[in-house]
Amino acid sequence: MVPNARTLIKYKHFISTACFFFLAFAISYSQSIPIPKLNLGIDTAKTPDEVNTSLQLLALLTVLSVAPSIIILTTAFTRIVIVLSFVRQALGTQGVPPQQIVTGLSVILTFYVMAPTYTEINKVALKPYFEKKISLEQAYENLQTPLKRFMLKNTYQKDLNLLLNISGDSVDSRENVSIYTVIPAFILSELKTAFIIGFYIFIPLIIIDLVVASSMMSMGMMMMPPTVVALPVKILIFALADGWSMLVSSLLSGYF
C-alpha cells in the first residue's frame, strides 16, 4: 500500500503543476490577442434607404423566429414523425427507439423527400436573388411555385375545398389557390394520412396481442401479463418482415 500512496502523491503534484502552467499560459495567451466585442444599438436613420433596410431586417428576424414551424409544417416531416411514433406505440417498446432517434430519422427522410423541391427553389429563387438578378418580390413568387406544387400533390381536394369555403375564395383551378390556403389544407391532409397509416400499422400488432392473450388464458396463465409474451413476438415478426424498410419504402413512395 505504501508504494501506491507515494505514486498517488507524485501524480497529484504533477497534475497540479501541469494545471498551473496551463492556466498561466492561457492567461498570457488571452492577453496577447485582442478579444472582439459585439455592439448592438439603435441610432437615428439618416436616409429612407436606411429605414427600409432596418424594416427588412426586422421582418427577416421575425420570419426566422417562426422558420422552424414553417419548415416542419410545409414538408413531409409531419406525416413521417407521426407514423414512426405510431410504430413505436404499436410495438409497445415504450422508449425504444428513443424519441431523438425517431425525430432524427424523420428529419433525414424529410430532407430526402424535399431535396428535389428545395433544389428547384434554390435554382429559381434563392440563387438568382443572391446574384441580384431578380428582386425580393420576384424571388418570393418563384419560391412559392415549387413548394405549392409539392403541397398540392399531397393535399386532399376535400380539405382544400374546406379551407376555400371558410375563406369564401373561388378559384378555377388548384394551381390558382393562394399558398395561405394551401398550407393549412396540406397540414390537415398530412395529419389525416398519418393517422390512416397508423391505423393500418396497429391492426396486425393488435391481432398478435389478442392471440397471445387468448392463448395464455386458455392455458390458465392468468397471472402473467400478456405483454410479456406479446412484446418479443411482435418484435420478432416485425424484424423478420423487415418492417423498418417496408415502412420507410411505403412512406417515401407516397411522395414520389
Summarize this structure as a short list of keywords or feature phrases.
256 residues, mainly alpha, 9 helices
Give an account of the 3D structure.
With 256 residues, the chain is mainly α. It has a domain at 87-253. The protein has helices spanning 2-32, 48-73, 77-91, 99-130, 136-153, 157-167, 179-218, 226-240, 243-253. Helix 3 (77-91) packs antiparallel against helix 4, helix 3 (77-91) packs parallel to helix 7 and helix 5 (136-153) runs parallel beside helix 7. The protein is elongated and about 85 Å long. Residues 1-5, 7-12 and 20-33 have low confidence and may be disordered.
Topology:
Elements: H1 2-32, H2 48-73, H3 77-91, H4 99-130, H5 136-153, H6 157-167, H7 179-218, H8 226-240, H9 243-253
Q: In sequence order, what are the helices and strands, one letter per element?
A: HHHHHHHHH
Biggest β-sheet strands, sense, barrel:
none
**Distance from first to last alpha carbon:** 71 Å
Proportion in β-strands: under 5%
Number of continuous helical runs: 9
Overall mean pLDDT stands at 78
Q: What structural class do helix, strand and pairing data support?
A: mainly alpha
Bulk shape: elongated
Helix content: over 70%
**Contiguous runs where pLDDT drops below 50 for at least 5 residues:** 1-5, 7-12, 20-33
Total beta strand runs? 0
- Assembly of the depicted chains: single chain
